């Protein structure tokens, strides 16, 4: 009787899958955990702009700085670090208030966060680097490209926006994005030096997100650094229209669309993401 019941259940399940009754999640709907980070050449905290900024350095070769997105932390780049560190000096860090870095009362701004990363490069004695930035990290990269182009060789900016209206107004209704926010809160409580202040941190940084970035066409047109403007074809947060506008407005920018991937492409398709990064920064 049990075997008959099991066989019947399997038939029902197979019929449901074939008929679309049960939805098998697409790759771009998933939020895989980051790959483990390899052993760092060195790591610690750097005193920058009144905070202690966590950083880690991997491998040897031409430098590349990886900057995570809002509410994230450096270890999101595990798969990218493992690949790029084979022939690059890879630098990662936790942005102010994120992960293992501290924050202070200074209002968040992309100019300030860019200044943090430039100060970190000074601390590490790195004059010029390629930069791979995701979301807020991509925006920080654009800020540096506008104001300190002498510090960059190339910029790979994924899921960045240059105006607040580049955001998808329905992003907070998306299940994958909501899962990312929940997971970020869990990680913050485990690794932050102020584990009980997640809500205060989110409130502080949200003041920036409400009005920044807000760059004009002329601001974007002054970028001379070689730039790739990159978006997953199912990004939950940034619109395709805005991404195409940025790529058309920044002189010489290359538009890169990542297939079957969302805002979290580096987790969903690490091999494809690494190839896209290398195709740009290594050529």
What does this molecule look like?
It holds the Pfam family Abhydrolase_6. The protein has 283 residues and is of the alpha/beta class. The chain has one domain: 3-Layer(aba) Sandwich (Rossmann fold), CATH 3.40.50. The chain is 39% helix and 17% strand. Strand 1 and strand 2 (51-58) form a beta hairpin. Residues 1-21 have low confidence and may be disordered.
- Give the number of domains: 1
Helical coverage, percent range:
25-40%
Count the beta strands: 8
The name of the CATH superfamily reads Alpha/Beta hydrolase fold, catalytic domain
| The top level CATH class name | Alpha Beta
β-strand amount: 15-25%
Mean pLDDT: 93
- Give me the side-by-side strand order of the main sheet: 1-2-4-3-5-6-7-8
Report the order of strands and helices. HEEEHEHEHEHHHEHEHH
Sketch the major β-sheet.
8 strands, mixed
- The geometry reads as globular
CATH fold call: Rossmann fold
Looking at the chains present, what oligomeric state does this protein adopt?
single chain
Helix/strand class: alpha/beta
Radius of gyration: 20 Å
Protein name: Pimeloyl-ACP methyl ester carboxylesterase
Signal peptide: 1-24
Organism: Phyllobacterium trifolii
InterPro entries: AB_hydrolase_1, AB_hydrolase_fold
């Amino acid at each position: 009787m049990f075997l008959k019941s099991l066989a019947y259940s399997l038939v029902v399940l197979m019929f449901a899958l074939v008929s679309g009754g049960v939805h098998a999640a697409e790759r771009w709907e998933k939020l895989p955990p980051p790959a483990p980070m390899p052993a760092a050449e060195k790591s610690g905290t750097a005193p920058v702009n009144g905070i202690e900024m966590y950083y880690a350095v991997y491998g040897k070769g031409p430098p590349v700085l990886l900057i995570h997105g809002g509410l994230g932390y450096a270890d999101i780049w595990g798969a990218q670090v493992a690949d790029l560190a084979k022939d690059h000096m890879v630098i990662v860090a936790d942005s102010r208030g994120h992960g293992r870095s501290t924050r202070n009362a200074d209002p968040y701004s992309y100019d300030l966060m860019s200044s943090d990363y430039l100060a970190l490069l000074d601390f590490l004695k790195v004059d010029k680097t390629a930069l791979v930035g995701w979301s807020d990290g991509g925006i920080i990269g654009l800020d540096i490209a506008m104001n300190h182009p002498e510090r960059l060789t190339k910029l790979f900016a994924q899921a960045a926006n240059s105006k607040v209206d580049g955001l998808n107004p329905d992003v907070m209704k998306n299940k994958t994005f909501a899962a990312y926010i929940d997971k970020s809160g869990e990680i913050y409580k485990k690794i932050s030096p102020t584990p009980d202040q997640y809500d205060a941190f989110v409130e502080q940084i949200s003041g920036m997100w409400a009005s920044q970035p807000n760059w004009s066409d002329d601001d974007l047109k002054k970028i001379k650094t070689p730039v790739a403007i990159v978006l997953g074809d199912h990004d939950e947060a940034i619109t395709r229209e805005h991404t195409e506008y940025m790529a058309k407005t920044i002189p010489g920018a290359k538009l890169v669309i990542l297939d079957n991937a969302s805002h979290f492409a580096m987790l969903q398709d690490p091999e494809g993401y690494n190839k896209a990064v290398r195709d740009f920064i290594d050529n």
